TrEMBL record:
Protein name in the entry: Alpha/beta hydrolase-fold protein
Species this chain originates from: Pantoea piersonii
SUPFAM superfamilies in the record: alpha/beta-Hydrolases (SSF53474)
GO molecular function: hydrolase activity, acting on ester bonds
Family: Belongs to the esterase D family.
One matching Pfam family: Esterase
Organism classification: Bacteria, Pseudomonadati, Pseudomonadota, Gammaproteobacteria, Enterobacterales
Length: 298
């Protein structure tokens, strides 16, 4: 069954997340150490707790922030938003933003980051957020080993989610996952392979990774297999140095192939486009849009 895409104008989505850039215009992450975030400062609207986890091989260490609204939970529990690149995501949450969430349908916030003061652990995320298989790509684009998404997903589904459920009541029918760039790849890979979430927000997924491996995986999804799931694909069309180095025609074809396959999969597909925004600029914009949608403020 073909389900038509829905396009959202970015102008309809109010800006509420700090627009301090997380990445340079060329898509490379900014790596200045972070200061205190809203969990450190405290909030009148959310209570925060923190827990650390380790990968199965003991080589990667994660810091997870859980923000629970200071409100009586709905009968079925709060909606829940899991945010990848949690260090960078937490740096963008302000008290004013949390108030906006609290005034609507506030979600539980789960920021899944790394045990570092930097906004990104580039080596760890390259492994954790990318799917296995595929032919190695350009060494200039793929500087670190990849293909570890299955192990990271096991940690997320079998350790991190159960921990959050013990802390506060979340609604499993309104559980969302957001990720940007490689994180956007992980969102798509999880959409294909797991049932732990109902809503998926993939922002600027790195479609060219390993010769479009994520598109190849989409073509393996049987028709109708993703019925009942919702995907928001969030993209910009601004040019960056990183984008100019790639074959624009190939990426455009990959995007069209991905959309066509997703439409056949049964997923309810929405597309949000930010005219003029580059790959890096989409991190704060997409997070803001996701918060608006999950809280019912769009």
């Amino acid at each position: 069954m073909n389900i038509p895409s829905t396009f959202f104008s970015a102008a309809l989505l109010a800006i509420g997340v700090s627009l301090i850039p997380a990445m340079q215009a060329n898509g490379r992450p900014l790596m200045e150490p972070l200061g205190d975030n809203i969990a450190d400062r405290g909030s009148a609207f959310y209570r925060f707790s923190i827990k650390t986890f380790s990968s199965a091989d003991g080589l990667r260490h994660y810091k997870v922030w859980l923000g629970v609204p200071k409100q009586t939970p709905p009968p079925k529990g709060f909606p829940v938003l899991f945010m990848l690149d949690g260090n960078a995501a937490m740096a963008r949450l302000s008290e004013d933003r949390l108030k906006q969430l609290a005034d609507n349908r506030p979600p539980m916030l789960v920021a899944v980051g790394y045990d570092t003061r930097l906004p990104f652990d580039v080596r760890a995320r390259a492994l954790d957020y990318t799917p296995p298989g595929g032919q190695p790509g350009d060494p200039g684009q793929e500087r670190y080993p990849g293909g570890g998404s299955h192990a990271f997903r096991n940690l997320l589904l079998n350790q991190i989610i159960p921990w959050t459920e013990k802390q506060a009541p979340g609604d499993p029918q309104r559980r969302a996952l957001w990720g940007h760039s490689y994180g956007g790849l992980f969102v798509l890979d999880t959409l294909y392979h797991a049932s732990g979430f109902t809503h998926y927000f993939s922002a600027a997924p790195s479609l060219s990774w390993r010769h479009q491996r994520i598109v190849e995986l989409a073509q393996q999804v049987p028709p109708g297999a993703l019925n009942g799931k919702t995907l928001y694909l969030i993209e910009g069309d601004g040019q960056s140095d990183r984008g100019k180095e790639r074959n624009a025609a190939q990426i455009g074809k990959a995007h069209r192939t991905l959309i066509a396959r997703l439409q056949k999969s049964g997923v309810r597909l929405h597309q949000i486009r930010y005219p003029g925004q580059t790959h890096g600029e989409l991190l704060p914009s997409s997070l803001d849009a996701t918060l608006n949608i999950i809280s019912g403020a769009e």
